[in-house]
């Protein structure tokens, strides 16, 4: 009789332990996504300042500004949607930001403006922080999804009706940039 009670108690303790691990992993995923969201908001806040700083020097390029601000609005409105919608909107914003920064660097009257350089620096820092937040989030997603797949925690997860989390993937343009070898020009090197 005591053996049966101890066995039942052990099973209950194991189930409680597994449920707590799953809950902690699910919460880590939510916290990781919150970190991405904070950095995306920071980037969204930097875009109008960058556009305003450059707009005077580039009056003939209003189309670029309009596209960038439209992409920002789309990305901001997508923040409460599913992760795939957020990824698409952020990918579009990233592409336009890269094109905008490249254009401003190639335009002398813009590249020499101190406030533009400072905003570009802040934007680069924000992009780095977005990457770090995305890595943390994806790590938490991997750990959580592994718990959903592993026995016996998957039995508890099924009973709790837990769904798999979606990783924050690289946009196609970002993935291509990662695969492409950067061109490095050093003084005195042969071309």
From TrEMBL:
Topology within the bilayer: Single-pass membrane protein
Keyword GTP-binding: no
Localization per record: Membrane
InterPro entries linked to this entry: LemA-like_dom_sf, MamQ_LemA
Translocase keyword on record: no
Residues spanning the membrane: none
Protein name, as recorded: Lema family protein
Organism the protein comes from: Nitratireductor basaltis
């Amino acid at each position: 009789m005591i053996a049966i009670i101890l066995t039942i108690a052990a099973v209950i303790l194991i189930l409680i332990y597994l449920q707590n691990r799953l809950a902690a992993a699910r919460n880590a995923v939510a916290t990781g996504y919150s970190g991405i969201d904070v950095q995306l908001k920071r980037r969204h806040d930097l875009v109008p300042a960058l556009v305003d700083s450059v707009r005077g020097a580039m009056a003939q390029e209003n189309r670029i500004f309009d596209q960038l601000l439209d992409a920002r609005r789309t990305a901001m409105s997508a923040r409460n949607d599913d992760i795939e919608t957020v990824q698409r909107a952020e990918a579009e914003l990233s592409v336009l930001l890269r094109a905008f920064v490249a254009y401003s660097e190639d335009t002398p009257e813009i590249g020499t403006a101190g406030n533009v350089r400072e905003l570009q620096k802040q934007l680069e820092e924000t992009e780095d922080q977005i990457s770090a937040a995305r890595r943390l989030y994806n790590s938490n997603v991997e750990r959580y999804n592994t718990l959903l797949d592993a026995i016996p925690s998957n039995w508890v997860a099924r009973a709790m009706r837990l769904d798999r989390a979606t990783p924050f993937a690289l946009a196609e343009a970002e993935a291509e940039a990662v695969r492409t070898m950067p061109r490095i020009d050093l003084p005195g090197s042969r071309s």
